[in-house]
Specification:
four-stranded antiparallel sheet, Alpha-Beta Plaits, elongated, TIM Barrel, 11 helices, binds phosphoenolpyruvate, alpha/beta, single chain, binds manganese (II) ion
């Protein structure tokens, strides 16, 4: 249930409705919008009787929420969420490019790649310090040292950095060092990790699970928002299918579906979808054409000796071509705007408890 307040409702009236909801044993979550405040009723086991709230001062209407996801749904917030990562905005109508190696391997490797991708047009640097690997014998990442290197990259290039928190144990550490925390595909339904991310003061990028439906993915995002963190980005990275011509199958149809169902921004990772570099540029073009808010791309200056995902990592020159090729496509999809315009003024209401 969504209790929609009148445009002229006062703070006292909003507080009064919150109190009335909580008196009934539910949790109330006010969602400030451009025009009016809506208050989401959470933790109800079954339908909520609208008549409890309709007569209260300042209440305009009460709308039943038809989806299992509430806070992430467009019904509860018609306006797009803008996520703030360092000084950047993602989801504000510009295209945000996140790029870097799969894993941080050394300071020299990270800084070299960061300089390349920044020059080519990347806005945010990515790199795993803790790596979720299929084999326990594969490189697991540099751990805390990797986080220190990421901080160095930020210092040297000015780019915000994103890296994965593979479990609750490392979440605090990752949250302290990174500008954005990634929750990987394998952890999309790690509910205790999602709850921890919900209490974070940093933005979170939530990758789609290996075989998750869009609804399951949105429900995972609901866990994070339910914890109070409104700064969530969804990342489509391909799902497992019968196809064996690529590592996964990039499900670009999820982008318009997410944008219809949710106000959260959605980006595309063509690298983990493809698993091979020759598909990454065409898939990136398609992702921009379908209306993604951004891309996350793996780049390595020496992919043949990369410690993970070398086969799908672009050479720096290829990444440069990618940025050149997507620019005109983005201009067609979002006329009047181009790359590099995403340093717009921050909007109010960021972070916890929005
Ligand atoms: C990654 O981005 O490094 C990664 C492991 O991705 P995913 O969780 O999508 O496999
Ligand atoms: Mn990778």
């Amino acid at each position: 249930m969504l209790v929609v307040m009148d445009r002229k409702a006062t703070q006292e009236e909003v507080d009064g409705v919150v109190e009335a909801i909580e008196r009934r044993g539910y949790v109330a979550r006010p969602i400030p919008g451009g025009e009016r405040v809506a208050i989401c009723v959470l933790h109800n086991q079954g339908p909520v009787d609208a008549s409890y709230f309709l007569g209260l001062p300042g209440v305009k209407e009460a709308i039943p929420v038809t989806h299992p996801y509430k806070l992430v749904s467009r019904e509860s917030q018609p306006e797009d969420t803008v996520v703030h990562i360092g000084d950047l905005c993602l989801g504000n109508g510009t295209l945000t490019i996140i790029a870097g190696p799969c894993a941080i391997e050394s300071e020299e490797q990270a800084v070299t790649i960061a300089r390349h991708v920044k020059r080519a047009g990347a806005h945010i640097f990515r790199g795993g310090a803790f790596k979720p690997r299929t084999s326990p014998y594969a490189f697991q990442g540099l751990g805390e040292e990797g986080l220190r290197i990421l901080a160095k990259v930020r210092e040297e290039t000015g780019m915000p950095v994103v890296t994965e928190a593979v479990d609750r144990e490392v979440f605090d550490l990752v949250e302290t060092h990174a500008d954005m925390v990634q929750i990987g595909a394998r952890n999309m339904q790690n509910f205790s990790l999602l709850k921890r991310a919900g209490r974070s003061h940093k933005p979170v990028v939530l990758k789609r699970g290996l075989s998750a439906t869009v609804q399951e993915w949105l429900m995972a995002a609901e866990y994070i928002m339910e914890g109070g963190n409104t700064q969530v980005i969804l990342c489509e990275r391909g799902v497992r299918t019968f196809a064996d011509h690529s590592r996964n199958t990039l499900d670009l149809s999820s982008v318009p579906v997410v944008q219809k169902e949710s106000h959260l921004p959605v980006i595309v990772d063509p690298s983990h979808a493809a698993g091979r570099r020759d598909q990454v540029i065409p898939l990136s073009r398609a992702a921009v054409a379908v209306g993604a808010h951004g891309l996350m791309v793996e780049v390595h200056h020496a992919p043949e000796s990369a410690l993970s995902d070398g086969a799908q990592s672009l050479y720096p020159q290829q990444f440069e071509s990618l940025c050149r090729e997507i620019d005109p496509i983005f201009r067609v999809v979002r006329p009047q705007r181009g790359l590099g315009l995403n340093k717009l003024p921050k909007v109010a209401g960021r972070g916890l408890g929005r």
